Amino acid sequence: MVNKHSQSFFGQSTGLTLVSSSKTEPFIFLKCIKKKPDGSWEKPSLGEGKTIKCNLDEIVMILEVLNRNKDSWSSFHNFKDVKTQISFKWEDAAKQKLLIYIGKYSKMLNYAQTEIFRMLLKHIIQEKIEFATIPNLNPIKKPTESSKDHTEKNKVPNSTELPSVKETVENNENEVSNINGVIEGETEKALLIQFEDNKEVWIPKSVIRSDYNSINEITQNFMIDNWILKKNNIFKN
Fold this sequence. Notes:
By secondary structure, the protein is of the alpha+beta class. 20% of the residues lie in helices and 35% in strands. It has helices spanning 56-66, 111-131, 145-153, 226-231, and strands at 5-10, 14-20, 27-34, 50-55, 72-79, 82-90, 98-102, 105-109, 176-186, 190-195, 200-204, 219-225.
């Protein structure tokens, strides 16, 4: 059992990422970004995109829709006097495609993506029920004069206070980049791509977030997770 979870669902123009920063925190984050007119993607690190925090009650209601017990569910989030409407509903009575609305962002998940989203959310809430609802049974003891002196003596000079928890989350390893390349080979699970610096690298299909044409010798744009690009020393020109 791990402490953190992150799963992204990318399409042609919109990306949705589900993030659980810790199993001991009674909430998750849903982060949305979209492609700009110039072809680049919004960057949360620059204040772009939209991130909301869902508590345990809201996770349960989302799961009611994902489990097909409800046709839809919606709510309003209020953060710093900014209200954001969120909605989860099925496209039609067949309940094969899920429509997600978060403010001005919208994302459709196909059947496979919906099942991944449902199973992950079910696993996460089970973790949080077990680990995020435990009361703090160890009251903080007031330090004695001697302990205060000891603390002051061992205090690191110029130390900074830890930042408070905010309602946004950053996970740079899950950011993506648009980069040009040519497919030189293909297996069931990976593409051999020659990038603009003539460097050829096998890239797992699981980290390629955009559609692509398997025909060789044509230059095309790929949306690839940054971590794999950094691992192979591939940089955008």
